[in-house]
Amino acid sequence: MIHIITPCSRPENLSTIKQTIPEDCTWLVVVDEKATGDFPTGITYLRPNVSGSWGHPLRNVGMEFILALKAKRGDYIYFLDDDNIIHPDWYKGVKNESYPFITWGQVFKNGQPRLHPTKEPRVGTVDTASFMVRCDAIGDVRFGTEYEADGLFAQQMAKWNVKTLDAYLCYYNYLR
C-alpha cells in the first residue's frame, strides 16, 4: 500500500488533485491551521494546530499518523504537495517496488526535466514529489523546518538501499 500525504494550505486545489490519486492508494490531507476556504468532501483530513515551514511540520504529523495507525510492513509513504498532481505514469512505475527508498526524476508542467533521476538524493537533487520511502525504513527521521528539509530528509533516508528509477514520474508545482 502507498499512503500519500499532502500538506495543505491551498484547499482550492484538492478537487483537482483528488482526480489523480490512484484508487489503490490512501490519501491523507494534513491541513495547515491557517488554511481557509472550501474543503471538498470524500477526503481524509487531519487538522492539527500546526503551520508554516513549507509544510514540513504537516508532513511530520501525517507520517506520525500513518506510522501509528495504518502502516503495515512493506507499505510506503509518498508526499504530494497541494500545488501538484500525480504524474500519469507514477503509479505504474512504483507500485511493484520493494526497496526502502526509491527516487525518480521530476519534470516541469511542460514535460521538460527539472531534476534528473539520481542515485545520490540530497539537497538540490530531489524534491518531495521525487521519492517515496518504505514505512519501516523511516525510524526517527523527520522533516526539519528549513526550506531544504525535503533534500535533508532524502539524504538521511539514502543510508538505506536506494533504488533509482530511470524515469520522470513527477511534476514540479503543476497547479501553480
What is the secondary structure topology, with strand pairs?
Layout: E1 2-8, H1 14-18, E2 26-31, E3 44-46, H2 56-70, E4 76-79, H3 90-94, E5 101-107, E6 113-115, E7 131-134, H4 135-138, H5 149-157, E8 162-171
Parallel strand pairs: 1-2, 1-4, 2-3, 5-8
Antiparallel strand pairs: 4-7, 5-6, 5-7
**Poorly predicted segments:** none
Biggest sheet character: 8 strands, mixed
* Mean pLDDT figure: 95
What's the CATH C level? Alpha Beta
The coarse overall form would be globular
The helix content, as a percent range, equals 10-25%
Report how far apart the termini are.
29 Å
The chain-level structural class is alpha/beta
Count every helix, treating DSSP H or I runs of 4 or more residues as helices.
Answer: 5
Along the chain, the helix and strand elements come as EHEEHEHEEEHHE
Characterization of the model:
By secondary structure, this protein is α/β, with parallel strands linked by helices. It has a single domain (2-171), classed as Spore Coat Polysaccharide Biosynthesis Protein SpsA, Chain A, CATH 3.90.550. It is 22% helix and 25% strand. It is built from five helices and eight strands. It has helices at residues 14-18, 56-70, 90-94, 135-138, 149-157; strands at residues 2-8, 26-31, 44-46, 76-79, 101-107, 113-115, 131-134, 162-171.
Q: What structural keywords apply?
A:
8 strands, 25% strand, single chain, eight-stranded mixed sheet, Spore Coat Polysaccharide Biosynthesis Protein SpsA, Chain A, 176 residues
Gist?
With 176 residues, the protein is of the alpha/beta class. The protein has helices spanning 14-18, 56-70, 90-94, 135-138, 149-157; strands at 2-8, 26-31, 44-46, 76-79, 101-107, 113-115, 131-134, 162-171.
